Amino acid sequence: MIRQLAVFLENKPGRLSALAECLSNGGVNIRALSVAETKDYGVIRFIPDDPVKAKEALKAEGYAVIETEVLAVNVPDKPGGLASVTKLLADAGINIEYAYASVIRLGESAIVILQVDDKEKASQILKNAGIRLLSQEDVKEI
């Protein structure tokens, strides 16, 4: 499992830019990013290369940060790659609460970030099927 950070932002011009600049100034690289929005606010979920540095930089600028563990799944980058992974989880009764893609690639594979309702069970099922899950150390090194 890897660590994801989430920040709530007002849905106004320049808010995402300020967040990105804060992370840049803190020497943090974003490895995956998801932006979900409503009329008034946005939820920015991201995988930083260094969660500790990212939290420190954000908190120093007054951002409220939520940290959660998510799965980073190595998915074959071909038609049916995502379907094969999600079917394993569906067949096991595991709910995918949300998902987003990463800028990380491993050879011919893409990395998909998954938040599921049972991370331990999902991890075991995916590993048993020969699917690689990235660790926080993998994210930092890639």
Topology:
Layout: E1 2-10, H1 15-25, E2 30-37, E3 41-48, H2 51-60, E4 65-76, H3 81-91, E5 96-106, E6 109-116, H4 119-128, H5 136-141
Antiparallel strand pairs: 1-3, 1-4, 2-3, 4-6, 5-6
In short:
This protein has 142 residues and is of the alpha+beta class.
Plain-language structure description:
The structure is a single chain. The protein has helices at 15-25, 51-60, 81-91, 119-128, 136-141; strands at 2-10, 30-37, 41-48, 65-76, 96-106, 109-116. By secondary structure, the protein is α+β, with helices and mostly antiparallel strands. It has 2 domains: 2-68, VC0802-like (2-Layer Sandwich); 69-141, ACT domain (Alpha-Beta Plaits). Strands 2-3-1-4-6-5 form a 6-stranded antiparallel β-sheet, with helices on both faces. A hairpin with a 3-residue loop joins strand 2 (30-37) and strand 3 (41-48). The protein starts with a strand and ends with a helix. The model has no long low-confidence stretch (mean pLDDT 93).
Rg (CA only): 16 Å
The biggest sheet amounts to:
6 strands, antiparallel
Count, helices: 5
Oligomer: single chain
Question: What is the overall pLDDT average?
Answer: 93
Helix and strand content put the structural class at alpha+beta
**Which architecture name of the largest domain does CATH use?**
2-Layer Sandwich
Quantity of strands, as a count: 6
Low-confidence stretches: none
The number of domains: 2
CATH superfamily of the largest domain: ACT domain
CATH class of the largest domain: Alpha Beta
